[in-house]
Amino acid sequence: MPTSSDTNLMSDLPPTDGEFEELAIAEEELIDAYLRNELSADERKLFANALHGSSELRERLHFASLLLKEVSSTPQPQTLVSQIDHSSHPSEVAFRSLRKWRHFFGPSFMPKPAFRLALAACVVLILLGGAALLAGWMNLRRESQRLAAERTTLEQQQQALEKSAAEQQSRSAQLTAEILTERQQLEDDRKRLELRRVQIAGEQTSSRTSVATLAHLFLPPGLTRGAGPPKELRIQPGVAKIKLELGLEAVDYARYQAVIKNAQNVEVYQQRGLKPTRSNKTLALKVSASSLPAGDYTVYLSGTTSSGATEVVGEYSFRVIRKQE
To answer: Is 90 exceeded by the pLDDT of residue 33?
Structure first.
């Protein structure tokens, strides 16, 4: 049998883990009984005095009341109800559930000041982290919007460059076609100019040949024999035709006739039915060069009236000089 001194010694020793757990369970049962109003008036008074002297006990009481309300408001599953003895009181069922819950977590689950501080720190960290995440997300969103705007701008610039390149290519093709057309026109013009040059050269050659083979002399009116030195017609070698132009003071007749006589008054040439040109008042005679050897000649010009009569118009004197080859 242990003595009283041994009992006092054992009471002074710190409780073991099992005793501490039993003590915690007893406190929990006492709190549960207090919440269910199962304590007597004296016990409730003693428990109230204990509450005034222990802030930790007040916190545990508050937590237990909240937990009891939560357990009482939660409907129990059908399988759990079937396992409970029908003779048990509902409050006893809640009490047993609460004991099992609290016994499972142990006394360390009770909110303490250090736990509250840690919980508050965690909440603060979560809020700060959420704010940081939100700020990062906003930055990423702004960056994404900026990149999207830049991408849109680049796409628009690329489309504008492609359109400009297409327009330039079209203008270049059009200019190339115009240049080719102008080159073709220039080539055609060059060919036409070459052909015209050949034609002009042929005409000039023909003209030189014609000039070389045709002698020309203009005889104004009033050149009668003895009125002065006659006009000279120099005939180059190779000349086949002689063109004499007789000037008229007035065009009074519809038709004229001309007779050419040499110095011996011998007729060498005659032409009838000559018609003057009213613009320059001249008559043109074409005589073979072989008909007019070197010497003095006189052209007798007469006109035919409307009645058929012939009237003398005038005389034209000239001298033919032939150059030797």
So the answer is: no
